[in-house]
Amino acid sequence: MKWSRYNLLFESERNGWLLYNSASNSFLQVSEEAAAVIRKIEDDPDGTDYSAAPELYFHLRNGGFLVEDGRDDDFFRILKMRRLTANYAGHTLMLTIAPTRACNFACPYCYEENRTPSMMTEETEDELVEFIRKHKKISRLSITWYGGEPLLALDRIKSLNRKIAALGKEYTSFIVTNAYLLNDDVIASLDELKTTVIQITLDGKKETHDSRRYLIGGGPTYDRIVSNIDRLLASAWDGRVNIRVNVDGTNQDEFADVYRFIQERYPEKFGSQITVYPGFVHGEEVNPDTSCFFDSDEKGQFLEEVHRKHGINALSMFPSAVTGGCTMTKRNAYVIGPDGELYKCWNDVGVPELVIGNISSLLNWNMALVAEGMIGASFLEDPKCEKCFFFPICDGGCPKMRMLNNRDGKDRDTCSYFKNHLKSLLELHYEEKYGKS
Fold first, then answer.
1. 431 found inside a domain
2. pLDDT tens per residue across span 252-270
3. Based on the domain organization, do 98 and 25 belong to the same domain?
4. Which one-letter DSSP state was computed for residue 414?
5. What single string gives the DSSP state of each residue in 308-352?
C-alpha cells in the first residue's frame, strides 16, 4: 500500500485536523488520535498494523488516501487520457465569431484598442456557413458571439443564425456584450438565436464603472446597462446572465458592492438566472473577456478576503475535477474574425501574425502555430505538472501564457488559485458546510 501523493493532512486552528485528497476530492475531519495514526501511516504505510484501526483503514481506502502501488501513476494517465479525449473529441464544433471588431465603448484596459474596426460582409458570412458545412462529422455547434461589440452587428448575427439553423445541426449560442445595445429587439431575438448565456460587465459601483467603461467620445453607460438587464430579466427569455466584474487594485473592494446590488435587485433570480463573478485585470497580456490572465496567489487572496469580510463565495472554495481546455487546445475550436480569418485564441483577434488560416480554404494553414498551442504549450506534457499535487484540480492555466513562457523564458503564472490558498479555502468551505467546530 502507498500513501497517495495527492493527500494533504493539516491542522486547522479552528477546525482541528483536516484530510483532503485532490484525486478523489475526498475531504474528512479526523480526531487528534486518528491524525497521529495517519502521520505514522504516511511515514510507513506498509509497516502499519491496520487491524488495530479497521474503521480508519476503511475510510482511508474508500477515500483514495491509501492506494495500491502504482495507482497514482495509473490515475495520472487515465486523467490525461480523458483530457486529451475531450480536447480531440470530434462531435462538437466550437466557434467564437466576431462579426465586427468595432465597439461603442472606449475602455482604457481593452486589449483591442488599436485594431481596425472592420465589419463582416455577406460574402464572408456565406463562406462561414460553408466552412461549417465542410465539417461533416460535426453534429453539434457551440457558438460565442464576440467582438468588438457584437450587438453592433446584430443584423449580421441574425442573418448568420438563419443560415446556420438551415444546416440542421444542434447548436446553442453565448453572447459576450457590454449590454449598452441590449434593447427590446435584441431580447426578442435571443430565443431564435438559441442564446442560453449572456456575459455582461459591471466594473464596480456607478461612479467607478462609468470612469472605466465609457462611450467612445465620453459618456456614462452604467444606468443604461442596468436598465437593459432589468428589461432582459423581466422578459420571457429563460437563459442565464453572468455579470463579470473586472477586478484590479483600483476597484477590488467594490466587487462585493456589485454582488450585493445584483443579489438585492433580483432576489428571485439571483443564483439561478443571474450570477456575479470576478475577472482579474492586470499583467502584460490582458484580455478582460477571459479568465486567463491573472496571478493565482492574488486571486486566492481576493477570494479569501471577500468571503471573510462579506460571506461571498466569488468562485468555488472547494476544488473539483476539471477536464479543462479552451479554443487553443481543442481540435475543433476556432475564433473567426470579421474578414474570415481564423485564430486559436480570443486574445489574438486582429493580430495578423497570429492568424492560422481562413474560412475560405482548409489548406495552407499555419499548422506550426496550431501545434505550438495544442501540444507545445500543453501542461499534459509538462513533467512538473505530472507529479503536482494539484494536477487533478487544475486545468493547467492559460495555454497562451504557457506558450509565451516557452517563447521568452519568463515565468508567467499558470497555476490554480488553490495552489497557495488550499488550506484556508478548505477551512472556509468546511465552516460554511458544517459550521465551526
1. no
2. 999 999 999 999 999 999 9
3. no
4. -
5. HHH---SS-SS--------TTT-TTEEEE-TTSEEESSGGGTT-G
